[in-house]
Amino acid sequence: MDIQEIIEWFKAAKPNPTEKDKVIQIGCHFEEVVEMLMALSCNSSEAYQISEEFYNSDAIDKTIDGEDVELPENWQIELLDALCDQIVTAIGVGYMMGFDMAGALDEVNKSNWSKFKDGAPVFDENGKIAKTDGYFKPDLAKFLNKNKEL
Question: What's the pTM?
Answer without folding.
Answer: 0.80
